[in-house]
């Protein structure tokens, strides 16, 4: 008897949230973020910058702002990033713009509140992830605009 293969949906037919859920289900998001954390902070993870800049009990509220116009992407993975970098920390976040929406320079994309050391620890990877995904989304939108109205 031939085993039946699991049939996954075509990723092109999924919303970003559904696609993210598919990646999460396979553990890919967590593994990628763990690798990014280990590359950035070492094993075991330790963020010297945060430890030198802030007291252990110090809290902060920070804003993630756009430097350039474009299409924002990657915010869907913010909870995953926080879970990997700060599993015990109480970091709250609020996305003020949704993935796929246009942004202008200076726009506040999201806010984070919580332990200052924990926020600094995840900051580099958060910026890299959101910048990269937003860059891809922005470039894709430019190509879509170029071919709109053509056959």
Structure notes:
By secondary structure, the protein is an alpha+beta fold. The chain has one domain (14-144): Aldehyde Oxidoreductase, domain 3. Helix content is 46%, strand content 15%. The strands form two sheets. It has a three-stranded antiparallel sheet with strand order 1-5-3, covered by helices on one side. Strands 2-4 form a two-stranded antiparallel ribbon. Helix 2 (28-41) crosses helix 4 and helix 2 (28-41) crosses helix 5 (116-147). The mean pLDDT is 90.
CATH topology: Aldehyde Oxidoreductase, domain 3
The CATH architecture comes to Alpha-Beta Complex
Class per helix and strand makeup:
alpha+beta
The termini sit apart by: 46 Å
Instruction: Give the uncertain stretches in residue-range form.
Output: none
| Fraction of residues in β-strands | 15-25%
The profile of the biggest β sheet is: 3 strands, antiparallel
Alpha-carbon Rg, integer: 18 Å
Helix content, binned percent: 40-55%
The shape is globular
The topology string of helices and strands comes to HHHEEHEEEH
CATH homologous superfamily assignment: Quinolinate phosphoribosyl transferase, N-terminal domain
Q: Overall pLDDT, averaged?
A: 90
Number of helices: 5
Q: How many domains in all?
A: 1
Side-by-side strand order of the widest sheet: 1-5-3
Q: Which keywords apply here?
A:
single chain, 151 residues, alpha+beta, Aldehyde Oxidoreductase, domain 3, two-stranded antiparallel sheet, 5 strands, 46% helix
In short:
This protein is 46% helix and 15% strand. The chain has five helices and five strands.
Secondary structure layout:
Blueprint: H1 16-25, H2 28-41, H3 48-53, E1 59-65, E2 70-71, H4 78-85, E3 92-95, E4 102-103, E5 108-115, H5 116-147
Antiparallel strand pairs: 1-5, 2-4, 3-5
């Amino acid at each position: 008897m031939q085993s039946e293969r699991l049939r996954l949906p075509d990723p092109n037919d999924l919303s970003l949230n559904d696609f993210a859920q598919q990646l999460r289900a396979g553990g890919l998001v967590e593994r990628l973020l763990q690798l990014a954390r280990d590359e950035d902070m070492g094993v075991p993870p330790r963020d010297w910058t945060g430890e030198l800049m802030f007291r252990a009990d110090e809290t902060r509220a920070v804003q993630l702002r756009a430097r350039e116009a474009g299409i924002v992407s990657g915010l869907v993975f913010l909870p995953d990033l926080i879970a990997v970098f700060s599993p015990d920390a109480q970091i709250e976040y609020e996305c003020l713009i949704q993935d796929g929406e246009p942004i202008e320079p200076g726009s506040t994309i999201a806010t984070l509140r919580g332990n200052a050391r924990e926020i600094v620890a995840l900051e580099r990877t958060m910026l890299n992830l959101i910048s990269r995904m937003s860059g891809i989304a922005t470039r894709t939108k430019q190509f879509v605009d170029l071919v709109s109205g053509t056959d």
